[in-house]
Amino acid sequence: MTEPPPAAPTVTHEGILRRQSTRESAARTYARSLPIVPVRARGLTIEGADGRRYLDCLSGAGTLALGHNHPVVLEAIRKVLDSGAPLHVLDLATPVEDAFTTELFATLPPRFARHARVRFCGPAGTDAVGAALELVRAATGRTGLLSFTGADHGTSTGALAFTDDGEEEGAIRLPYPYDYRCPFGTGGERGGELAARWTEGLLDDLGSGVRAPAGMILEPVQSEGGVIPAPDTWLRRMRGITADRSIPLIADEVQTGVGRTGTFWAVEHSGITPDVMVMSQAIGGSLPLAVIVYHEDLDSGRRGAHESAVQGNQLAMAAGAATLAHVRENRLADRAATLGARMLARLQGLAADHPCVAEVRGRGLMIGVELVAPAAGDPAPPDPALAAAVQQECLNRGLIVGLGGRERAVVRLLPPLTLTDEQSVAVLDRFADALAAAERSALRRKESGPSN
User: Where in 123-259 does DSSP place strands (E)?
Assistant: First the structure.
C-alpha cells in the first residue's frame, strides 16, 4: 500500500504552533515573538518547518558559541554515546568530567585558576547563581547581598531576589553605570565614579542601615538588561571596595563567558579576579550545564550544598569541553573582538540616520541597539513597540534577534563566534532594512492619527 504524501510544510508549521499555544504555559517568552518551528540547523542558519531559512543572531541567548550543530560538538557527543559510558552519574568522577574540568581550568585567568575549586550545580544558570549565593552566605555567616539595577541573574526564587524587579529582605540594589540613562545624570567615567562612591558610602555609613553583606553579584556586561558593558575602571573599583571589606565578589558570566565579549571571560577586560564566577549557557556546548568556580577559601565542604540529581550530565560535559577547547585553540575570542568592533561601527553609523536609535553599545559579539521615542526628552523614553516592530521586520527578512533592556526596547544581537565576514554583512544589511521599515511604519501610524 502506498504511503500518503506528507502534510504540506505550512500545515505542519501552523499546527505545531497552534498546539503549542493551547498546551503550553502562558509564560512562554521567545515563542511569542518568534513564531517559527525549527526543524534543522547548522552554524548561523535555522530552517523552519515552513521551509524558510533564518540567520540566527540570538544563538540560544548566547548558549551556542559555535552556532548550531558544530562538527566538533557533534563528534564529542557521538564519542560518548558510542563508548557505552554512563550518561547520568550524579557527582561521581568520570573521564568525561575530568576532561571538562581540565579544559575549563585551562581557560581561566591564571591567577584565579591557581586557587580555584569547581562545583557542578545543575542544568541552568539560575541554579549556579543560587549555588553562588548559598556559598558566600555559608562562608561569611552573613545574609545580606548586593546587586545592581538592571540585573538579570535567573528565574529561580533565590536568583529572582537579585534580579532587577525582585525583592528579598537584605537584598540591596546599587546603581549600575549606564551612560545613556545614568542615574546621576553624567554618564562616562564620572557616572561610574559616582556609582562607586555611592556604594562606598552605603557600606561605610553606620547610619545607612546596611549591615556587612555576604557578597556582591554583578554582570560584567548586563545582557538581558540591555547590553550595558560595565566600565573597566568601575569594575576595578568594585573589586577594591569588596576586597577591602572582605565581601566576596561574584561575577555572573552566564551570558558573557566563553569568548562572547572578546576575551574568554568578560572579567579579563578589567583584569579583576573575582571570588566566584557563575558559568552556564555556552559552557555546555549547546546542552544544559551550569557550574560555579570559586576561591578555595570559600569551600565550606558542606555536604549536599545546592545538590542536583542532574549535575552529572556527561553529554553536556563532553560537548562543553569540545566547545571550550575549540574557542581557545582557534582564538575565537579575539575574532569576536575584531568582528564585533566592525559591526558596532557600522551600527553606530546607522544611528546618525535614525533618530530612534539612542545608543549602540556592546562588547565583542554581544551588541545592543537601544530604541527610543526621540522627540520626548533627553534621555528619551524607551520605545518597546518600535523594538518589537524591528524584531518582527527582522524575522520577515529571515533574521532572528532578541529584545531586552528597559521595557524590552533594546534589540540584541548575539551571533555565534563562528560568524564569517560575509555573514556579518548579511546580518547588518537585513537589520538596517528592518529598522528602516519599522521606522516608516511607525511614522505612517503617527501621521494618520488614532484609528476611529
Answer: 145-148, 171-174, 215-218, 221-222, 228-229, 249-252
Quote the pLDDT of residue 234: 96
Q: Which three cell numbers stand for residue 93?
A: 568522577
Residue with cell 577591602: 244
**Given 3-state DSSP classes, what are the helix, strand and coil percentages for the chain, each rounded to the nearest 5?**
45, 15, 40
Residues 194 and 176: their CA atoms lie apart, in Å, by: 10
User: Does residue 112 surpass a pLDDT of 90?
Assistant: yes
Query: Cβ distance 173 to 147 under 8 Å?
Result: yes
Q: So what's the pLDDT on residue 312?
A: 77
Overall fold of domain 72-329: Aspartate Aminotransferase; domain 2 (3.40.640)
Instruction: Tell me which amino acid residue 336 is.
Output: A
Q: Are 266 and 282 in contact (CB under 8 A)?
A: no
pLDDT digit string, tens, across residues 367-385: 999 999 987 678 999 999 9
DSSP state of 170: T
Q: What's the rounded Cα separation, in Å, for the pair 165 and 96?
A: 39
Instruction: Decide if pLDDT at 163 tops 60.
Output: no
Any idea which fold 9-63+331-448 has?
Aspartate Aminotransferase, domain 1 (3.90.1150)
Q: Mean pLDDT across the stretch 340-365?
A: 95
Phi, psi of 140 (to 5 degrees): -100, -20
Given a contact cutoff of 8 angstroms between Cβ atoms, the answer to whether 77 and 319 are in contact is yes
How open is the CA angle 402-21-409, to the nearest 5 degrees?
25
Are 371 and 356 in contact, with CB atoms under 8 Å apart? Answer: yes
What are the structural domain ranges in the chain?
9-63+331-448, 72-329
Residues facing 360 on adjacent strands = 369
Sign of the C-alpha dihedral computed for residues 204, 209, 215 and 218 taken in this order: negative
DSSP H helices in 84-185: 95-107, 110-113, 125-140, 157-160
Q: What CA–CA distances, in Å, run from 353 to 264, 344, 362, 403?
A: 34, 15, 20, 22
Q: How do residues 190-203 score in pLDDT, each as one tens digit? A: 999 999 999 999 99
